[in-house]
Task: structure prediction
Amino acid sequence: MKSLLLKIIVVYFSLVSFSQVNDCDIWEFPNTASNATIAILEDNFNSFLIISEETGESVGISSIACEAQIGVFYTDDVGELSCAGYVAWNSAASMALSAWGDDTTTPEKDGFFSGESYFFKLCVYANGNQIGVYDQSFLTMSTDTPFSNTYGTNGMASIQSISFEINSDDFFDITIGCALVHLSEQKNLQDIVQEVDLYGRDIGLSNSAGFIFQIHSDQTVSKFYRF
Result:
């Protein structure tokens, strides 16, 4: 247990400044005087899933190439979910997310109350374009000491498993498009001599959206989805 706590503390202090980069413009939050630390440990990545609403197919978040963020949300004064912190997803290492508590010096509720449950959202985007924001559909969090599944100032939490249910169109974009973008990046070291669309039409070296086939100078072909 001590080694696990040390790992979380090191991750938290190394990533706290990085987690403030805002790529999902709707996710803004005040930096209040109190927070809790939520660990997202690499050991649990296989249990972080995106699930198609229609088919039930699933894919691990760590297996997609598009960028993503996980945000934690509280319920504000009018019953709406508001962001209390987020972190950029990193498939190669554990992460730590700061969940900010309510500032008692202000009249409005601008963070978590003690004992309030966490709620998570996932934002996925590619090439600066947001694909979608998705609510959690399933969540389990550790309740082993010193962890808690509800907010407490200076408290610690750990997500054991979580899933986000999305529509079939977005599931296709993420599982196919994001994976193909990743594959195409591996071929960019070779010269591209031609780009064609799904129907074999020459589209030049443009920024056309959709499925793209790139013909390289060594006669190899890369395919990917451009958003």
